[in-house]
C-alpha cells in the first residue's frame, strides 16, 4: 500500500529551480551602472578603503550604448563594441574593466552561451579591489550559471566563496547552498542550509517559498526520514493546499504504518475526483481489503475497470474476485476469477475458482476447476486441492473416484486426518449404496393347492 514510488518522484522544478529563476544579471548590470555613473572620486580619511569606485564619462556612455545593443539582442554588435573598448588605447580602471566584463557576461547569458558567460564573470572577480556589492552579486550570478550547466561541485565552491565574504547571508544564499548539496545527492548536508533559509522566513513572519519546502521534503524522502517529511508536508498543505500533497501525505502514513489515516486521505481524494487510474484505484482497493471493507474494494475496481481506467489483466481480475469472495458474493466472484484463470498459467486460480463453485454447490464445475488446477501443478497446497476435488466428486456420487482423490490427499501429513475421515465416510456410503442395490433371491410362484396341502399337513 505504498504511494511513494510515483507520488514522491523528484519534481523537475526542483532540479531546475535555480536555472533562470534567480539568475537576474540584467538587473544587476543596470543597478551597477547607475551606481557607477561618472563621479568625482572622494577618499575617506577615517579608514583605509578600497580604491574609489569611479567611471569616466566616455566609458560610461559607451557602456550605455552597448547595453542598448544587448537589450535589442544585437549580440554581435555588442561584443564588437566591448572588444573595441577593451583593446582601446585608453587605460581602464579595474572597476571599468569589471563593468565591461559584467556586461559581456550578461550578453553571453542572453545568448545561452553559459560557459562564455562564466568566463566573463570570472574576469569580473579577477579585478582588484572590487566593491563588496559587486563581488557578492557576481558570485551569486556565477553560482547560478554553474547550476545551469550542471557543474554542481563548482557551484558549491562559488557559493562558499560568496558566504565567506557576506557577514549575514540572505535566505536565498542558504538555499543555493542547500540546492548544490541536493543536486550532488548530499542529502544530509543539504538539509541544514535549507532549514536555515526556511527558519529565516519564519522569523520574519513570512511563508517559506513552496519550492523550498518541496526541496526539503524530497531530501527527507531520499533519507527515508518519514517523520520529518510528515512535518514538512503538513506545512506545505497548510501554506499551499494541493491534492497532490495530500496524496503524498497518505503515502507517508503508509510508510509509517498508519494505514487508517492513509485510507481516510486516499478515499477522500478518490471521492472528490482527484485521483483515478490504475495505481490509485488499485491501491485504494487494497486499502479497503486491508481494513476489512471488501465490498467497497470490489465496487471501486468494478467501476474503474468499466471506465477503462484499470486494466482487466490477470492481477486486477484476481483482486476483484478476491474482493467479491471476501464480501461473500460468490456469484460475482466467479466471472472475473474465471477470466483470470483462463488468461494465466496459474493453477492456484483454478483452485480458488473451485472453492467458489463449492460454496455455491455447483459440484460439476467445482470438480472440473479443481482437476484443471491440479493438472497445471505448482500449487501451494496440493493436499487441500485434492480434498476440494474429492468433495466435488463425492457430491456427484462418484464415490470410487472421490476415494482415490482423498487417498492422494492423505499422503500429506497436513491433511492426513481430514482425508482419513473423508475416506471412512466414503466407504460407509459405498457400503450403503451397495446394500441398497443388492438383489434379493427370486421366489417361485407356488400353486395354491400346494400351499393348502402344506397347511393341512402341518395341522395334522
Question: Gist?
Answer:
With 460 residues, the protein is an all-alpha fold. The chain has helices at residues 4-7, 12-16, 25-35, 57-71, 75-86, 94-110, 114-125, 132-148, 152-165, 171-183, 187-203, 210-222, 226-239, 243-255, 259-271, 278-290, 294-306, 314-326, 330-343, 347-359, 363-376, 382-394, 399-410, 416-437, 448-459.
CATH architecture of the domain at 9-39 and 52-165: Alpha Horseshoe
Assembly context of the chains: single chain
What shape does the CA trace take? rod-shaped
Which blocks of ≥5 consecutive residues have pLDDT under 50? 1-10, 12-52
SS-based class? mainly alpha
What is the average per-residue confidence, as pLDDT, rounded to a whole number?
84
Largest sheet: none
CATH topology of the domain at 9-39 and 52-165, which one?
A: Serine Threonine Protein Phosphatase 5, Tetratricopeptide repeat
Which CATH first-tier class of the domain at 9-39 and 52-165 would you pick?
Mainly Alpha
Query: Termini separation (Å)?
Result: 99 Å
Amino acid at each position: 500500500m505504498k504511494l511513494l514510488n510515483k507520488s514522491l518522484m523528484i519534481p523537475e522544478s526542483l532540479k531546475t529551480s535555480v536555472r533562470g529563476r534567480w539568475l537576474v544579471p540584467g538587473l544587476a548590470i543596470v543597478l551597477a551602472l547607475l551606481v557607477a555613473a561618472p563621479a568625482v572620486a572622494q577618499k575617506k580619511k577615517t579608514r583605509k578603503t578600497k580604491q574609489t569606485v569611479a567611471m569616466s564619462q566616455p566609458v560610461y556612455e559607451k557602456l550605455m550604448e552597448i547595453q542598448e545593443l544587448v537589450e535589442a539582442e544585437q549580440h554581435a554588435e555588442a561584443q564588437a563594441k566591448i572588444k573595441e573598448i577593451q583593446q582601446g588605447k585608453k587605460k581602464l580602471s579595474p572597476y571599468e574593466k569589471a563593468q565591461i566584463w559584467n556586461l559581456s557576461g550578461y550578453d553571453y547569458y542572453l545568448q545561452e552561451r553559459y560557459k562564455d558567460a562564466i568566463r566573463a564573470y570570472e574576469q569580473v572577480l579577477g579585478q582588484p579591489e572590487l566593491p563588496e556589492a559587486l563581488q557578492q552579486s557576481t558570485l551569486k550570478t556565477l553560482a547560478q550559471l554553474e547550476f545551469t550547466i550542471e557543474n554542481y561541485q563548482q557551484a558549491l565552491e562559488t557559493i562558499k566563496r560568496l558566504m565567506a565574504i557576506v557577514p549575514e547571508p540572505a535566505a536565498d544564499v542558504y538555499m543555493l547552498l542547500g540546492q548544490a548539496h541536493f543536486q550532488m545527492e548530499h542529502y544530509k548536508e543539504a538539509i541544514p542550509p535549507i532549514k536555515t533559509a526556511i527558519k529565516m522566513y519564519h522569523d520574519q513572519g513570512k511563508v517559506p517559498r513552496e519550492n523550498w519546502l518541496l526541496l526539503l521534503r524530497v531530501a527527507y524522502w531520499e533519507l527515508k526520514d518519514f517523520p520529518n517529511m510528515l512535518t514538512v508536508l503538513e506545512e506545505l498543505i497548510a501554506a499551499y493546499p494541493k491534492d497532490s500533497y495530500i496524496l503524498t501525505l497518505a503515502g507517508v502514513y503508509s510508510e509509517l504504518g498508519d494505514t487508517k489515516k492513509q485510507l481516510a486521505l486516499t478515499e477522500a481524494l478518490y471521492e472528490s475526483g482527484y485521483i483515478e487510474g490504475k495505481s490509485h484505484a488499485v491501491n485504494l482497493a487494497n486499502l479497503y481489503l486491508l481494513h476489512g471493507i471488501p465490498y467497497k474494494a470490489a465496487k471501486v475496481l468494478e467501476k474503474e475497470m468499466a471506465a477503462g481506467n484499470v486494466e482487466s489483466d490477470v492481477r486486477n481480475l484476481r483482486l476483484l474476485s478476491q474482493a467479491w469472495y471476501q464480501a461473500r458474493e460468490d456469484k460475482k466472484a466467479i466471472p472475473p476469477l474465471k477470466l483470470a484463470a483462463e488468461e494465466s498459467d496459474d493453477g492456484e486460480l483454478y483452485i480458488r475458482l473451485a472453492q467458489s463453485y463449492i460454496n455455491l454447490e455447483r459440484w460439476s464445475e467445482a470438480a472440473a476447476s479443481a482437476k484443471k488446477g491440479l493438472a497445471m501443478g505448482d500449487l501451494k497446497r496440493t493436499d487441500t486441492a485434492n480434498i476440494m476435488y474429492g468433495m466435488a466428486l463425492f457430491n456427484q456420487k462418484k464415490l470410487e473416484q472421490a476415494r482415490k482423490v482423498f487417498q492422494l490427499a492423505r499422503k500429506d501429513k497436513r491433511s492426513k486426518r481430514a482425508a482419513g475421515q473423508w475416506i471412512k465416510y466414503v466407504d460407509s456410503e459405498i457400503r450403503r449404496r451397495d446394500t441398497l442395490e443388492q438383489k434379493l433371491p427370486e421366489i417361485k410362484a407356488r400353486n395354491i393347492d400346494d400351499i393348502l396341502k402344506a397347511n393341512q399337513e402341518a395341522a395334522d
